Predict the 3D structure of the following.
Amino acid sequence: MSQGNFAQFKLVLLGESAVGKSSIVHRFVKNTFDDMRESTIGAAFLTQSITLPESKTTIKFEIWDTAGQERYKSLAPMYYRNANAALCVYDITSKASLIKAQDWIKELKKQAPEGIVISLVGNKSDLTENREVEEGEVDEYIRQMTEDGSVIITSECSAKTGDGVLDIFNKIGRALPVEEAVGGNRSRQAGRRPGGVDLGRTNRQQTQSSSCC
């Protein structure tokens, strides 16, 4: 691919409340961390770009950070519908949060678009002394999922220190169909309407209208 390629993808974060989804996003987008961050209501929308040196492609992520509270669960399909990638986040100090993240993966496999890139992310790696989720346990889960053909990217990170956060999005970027998206951009520039996901203003307006302030 030539220099200056550009691709845009929709990414959604799912997981139990307080696992640090918003903290991961803000570390990635703004390189900041706030210990007193309030829980997300409905969903928050942010964007950030990365560049993959090997393909000389800039990837723009349209990020939907969903609320983890149970009362917002019914809204989740609105956000992962047409998503290209999903981060299912758990807290390494809470085994219950891993179970919840695994439940989200099950739902995505049934309801999300075919080919969605799924990443299982363990946050709060800076609290390893309080760890409840062992890496071997996650490895065994991934091994079982691989047997049915699933491909799930696994990572641990600390939104607090920033360790491992950028690596997560780089791994996702490399797993996405970048060449296909770049080809779609070229078709659009040539005046042809490409197939695939509509990431336009209408979708954003619909999802934003369902969220509280």
The first strand starts at residue 5 and ends at 15. Confidence is low (pLDDT under 50) at residues 192-213. The CA atoms of residues 26 and 85 lie 18 Å apart.
